[in-house]
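Issue 218. Parser rejects a valid record. Input:
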Amino acid sequence: MKLIDPIVKLHWKENQQNEKDKLNYPGYYWLAYDWDNFLFSCAICNQRHKKNIFPLINPGSRAKNHHSSIKFEKPFFIDPSKENPKFLIKFNQEVATGIDKRGRGKKQ
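Output the parser choked on:
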């Protein structure tokens, strides 16, 4: 059996800068080796879709360096290690639709 799409580690909060907005989105470099910042993902999902973005519902609260706190950030993405996606996303055949009251899971 050939493995078509390998599983890769994913940084939940990216440790690299977002190329489109380097000043407002410097990346979470201080979380690069934090075990709580790792999830597993298929390579296609991580490289083509998530890339190095981490949108917030409240972008003004983004931690910009290791002196800032991340506890006030409200991620737009659903963290499957802390929340059950079953209650936040529904499927119409193969198309996922967000049903979260905060709009998470919907395409931005």
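Fixed in the parser; the record now loads. The helical segments are 43-50.
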